[in-house]
Task: inverse folding
């Protein structure tokens, strides 16, 4: 497992700084986010230092998403949220602050729970031809 000395999440993995760890196995760790956007807000990370989705190995992603439902269901059983957002920010432009891949599990309790998430619907700006062009541009870069 690779670690970076200046990475706060690597320090948590190495038990160099404290965290409220709620789940841990050989490859992953989940701990309570100190920001607590909503009650139960938890971070799920790989123990290996992989900066973002662009660096994340497929095997790491598979392991993380095998654990995510387990942690989500524990949060659901503990706090009975009405829903849950899974959020992942990649790169500074996408508001990533800690450059070690992490998935936020944010329990939702209603519109006034402190978490605001807004999507802009730009469907009127894109024709079916535009969508087909986007698909083509991405598809040529996919590798099986």
Result:
């Amino acid at each position: 497992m690779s670690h970076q000395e200046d990475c706060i999440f690597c320090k948590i993995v190495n038990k160099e700084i404290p965290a409220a760890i709620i789940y841990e196995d050989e490859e992953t760790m989940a701990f309570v986010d100190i920001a607590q956007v909503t009650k139960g807000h938890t971070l799920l990370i790989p123990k290996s230092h992989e900066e973002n989705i662009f660096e994340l190995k497929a095997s790491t992603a598979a392991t993380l998403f095998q654990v995510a439902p387990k942690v989500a269901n524990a949060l659901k059983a503990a706090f009975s949220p009405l829903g849950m957002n899974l959020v992942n920010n990649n790169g500074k432009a996408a508001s990533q602050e800690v450059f070690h891949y992490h998935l936020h599990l944010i329990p939702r309790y209603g519109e006034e729970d402190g978490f605001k998430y807004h999507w802009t619907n730009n469907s009127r700006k894109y024709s079916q031809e535009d969508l087909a062009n986007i698909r083509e541009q991405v598809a040529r870069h996919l590798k099986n």
About this structure: The chain has one domain: 8-119. The chain has a mean pLDDT of 95. The two ends are 26 Å apart (CA to CA). The longest strand covers residues 103-108.
